[in-house]
Q: What sequence folds into this?
């Protein structure tokens, strides 16, 4: 005889009601986070597809409500990521660039201020961390949850891609500055 499986709602209610360590406020907060996660994931997946992109599997953990790597369908090139933390007011569309080559790292030092100003003018924040092997460049554009739609996503992603290409090219001359790198 098959075992009858309880509906998901009943399973959740059983967990909440039987757990004596969860306060009502904590239970309500957790349920609101679950609803938000489901709504945000559906919205992000739809926007990604409408934008002609695909994505890798959803990552979620205690820090991240959602994280997807973004992949261009035309050439299967990774073009960044979209992420949202559980307590974040919006989404981060970003990219991480690693410069481990010593010559690249030295060239990047010469252009860092110009590249940062250019990215900031496009609404992309650039943070740089020096590690033992070179630099880790983190580029992020932010979109508040209420403002996330296909147009804002595409504009932010376009600005991010431009900044990432500029940082990868390491060419100050592209910004109109005289110290062109070879």
A:
């Amino acid at each position: 005889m098959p075992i009858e499986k309880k509906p998901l709602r009943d399973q959740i209610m059983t967990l909440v009601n039987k757990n004596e360590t969860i306060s009502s406020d904590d239970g309500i907060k957790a349920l609101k986070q679950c609803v938000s996660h489901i709504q945000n994931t559906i919205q992000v997946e739809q926007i990604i597809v409408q934008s002609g992109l695909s994505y890798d599997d959803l990552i979620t953990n205690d820090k991240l409500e959602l994280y997807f790597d973004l992949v261009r369908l035309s050439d299967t090139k990774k073009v960044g990521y979209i992420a949202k933390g559980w307590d974040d007011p919006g989404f981060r569309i970003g990219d991480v660039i690693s410069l481990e080559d010593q010559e690249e790292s030295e060239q990047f030092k010469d252009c860092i201020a110009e590249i940062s100003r250019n990215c900031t003018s496009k609404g992309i924040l650039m943070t740089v961390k020096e590690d033992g092997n070179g630099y880790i460049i983190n580029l992020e554009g932010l979109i508040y949850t209420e403002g996330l739609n296909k147009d804002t996503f595409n504009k932010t992603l376009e600005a991010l891609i431009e900044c990432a290409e500029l940082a990868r090219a390491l060419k100050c001359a592209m910004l109109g500055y005289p110290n062109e790198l070879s």
